[in-house]
Amino acid sequence: MTLSEEQNLPQHIAIIMDGNNRFAKKKQMQKGDGHREGKNVLDPIVEHCKKVGVRALTVFAFSSENWNRPQYEVDLLMQLLEETIHEQLPRMEKFNIALRFIGDRSRLSTKLRALMEYAEQKTAAFDSMTLTIAVSYGGMWDMAQAAKSIAEEALAGRLETNQINVDLFDKYVSLNDLPAVDLLIRTGGDYRLSNFLLWQAAYAELYFTDTLWPEFTVQELDYAFNVFSGRERRFGKTSEQIQQAKIEN
Q: Name one GO biological process term (predicted).
């Protein structure tokens, strides 16, 4: 049994890493420096998740809607992503962590796509944890892609429409081989999901914090874990049913 199971900690954590630009303004830094600061926060968070036995960590690096940001910022974020991949590869090997990416890669540069594929292949056999970086990703895009794939299967005669249900759909969305998201954290003070993992986080516990991402610490992550542990997850059942199930187990 892992430490996370012993302490009733989440097996899959998702993080919306928000607040980089506001951090830069707060510190009177130059444009883009908030993103650079935010990039450095990820390492201790990944290490801590691995240490306590979290199976999967998925972070929102660049959304489908972020393409609408100023071009200089888009270019910087793509550059930082490339730097992050190069920096993470030796760390993934050291900690036995698989590195994956989800999102629409069609708008990414050929160079970046090749680097992402190389990183995924290089770390595919690592099994202590999975770190997924969502790039050019949107939850609605994810579900539309799943629906398209299912439709293609049906048109090809490999699938009957009466076979389409929640369990089948689940097999076609991103991260279908990982546990569902247990805990979704959003930094930066906003209270919305921003089109992130809408299917995968359907029953996730939500933790919102005013802390800006570059100021997010392992200590606050542990606090979020404590909040999660104190919540009763009913999945549509009553509290009495949950308590009875605990007694029986």
A: regulation of cell shape
What is the rounded distance in angstroms from the CA atom of residue 187 to the CA atom of residue 87?
23
Catalytic residue among 8, 40, 66, 170: 66
Residue 66 bears catalytic tag: yes
pLDDT for res 244: 63
- CA-angle at 113, arms to 98 and 171, nearest 5°: 55
Identify the burial level of 50 via C-beta atoms within 10 angstroms of its C-beta, where 0-12 means exposed, 13-18 middle and 19 or more buried.
middle
Residue listed under structure tokens 């969305």: 173
Domain that holds residue 185: 12-138+178-248
Total domain count, the chain = 1
Q: Is 195 marked active-site? A: no
What mean pLDDT comes out for the span 3-11? 70
Residue-wise pLDDT tens digits, 118-153: 999 999 999 999 999 999 999 999 999 999 999 999
